Write the structure tokens for this entry.
Amino acid sequence: MATTSIPWTEQDRTGLFRIATGAGVGLAAALLAIVIPVAFLLVASYDPGGFLSLHQSAFLDATGLLILAGALLFLVSLFFYRRGFALLRKIDSRFTVASILCWIGTLGFLLVVVAAIVIVGSSSSLLSCVNGQPTHALTCLRSGEPLGAYTALVGFWMGWLGGVGIVLGLSAGSSRFKAREIALGAALYAILLLALVGPFVSLFVSFDGVEYLLALVPFLSVLAPFFVFRGTDPDRAKGASAPSAS
């Protein structure tokens, strides 16, 4: 079916603004919850006696607080994505499934926040278990704080479905607003979702190579919202499209 260019409505502009806000907050969340903690862990593992030492409970507490703050920002990011998709689905049905999945993801991130609070409260036992090996963190979490581990697991899968909603919503948005950078952001989010599966599955089934999947996460978690944010610039989004009447 042919497509024709149609003028933007106020719902288009507001929906795009909400998606841009979700991407911006998501970028900040990725830096706080993923990039900085991973950088700290890498420095600590290569310099065990330095200031950023895995043997210092204060370091692990600070890392846990960063993850908690990032989880809260991820929740805010998903809220704005969901609100944007919910508004756009009133004029474009392609956003309906994305909006519903983002609701599920919101509940999942609430569980992740609860799990992060549990983890922060049990940093000492986790510290002794990790013992200088950052890649053992997931196994230590399962053995030392099973409630936090299983809450995080359930929350992760619900949040993962919310991530699928973001991918679907951004894919629809890239088509509607003719924004290739939003499409690129959606593709990077999809790869990120695949990369995140391995570490959480390893909570129950051990397998080699999980650290390589983890290495991809910081890059993807920053690049995906970055390109989405760039694509939501009204000067880059060339206009909505809709099926022609003919």
In short: The longest strand covers residues 3-5.
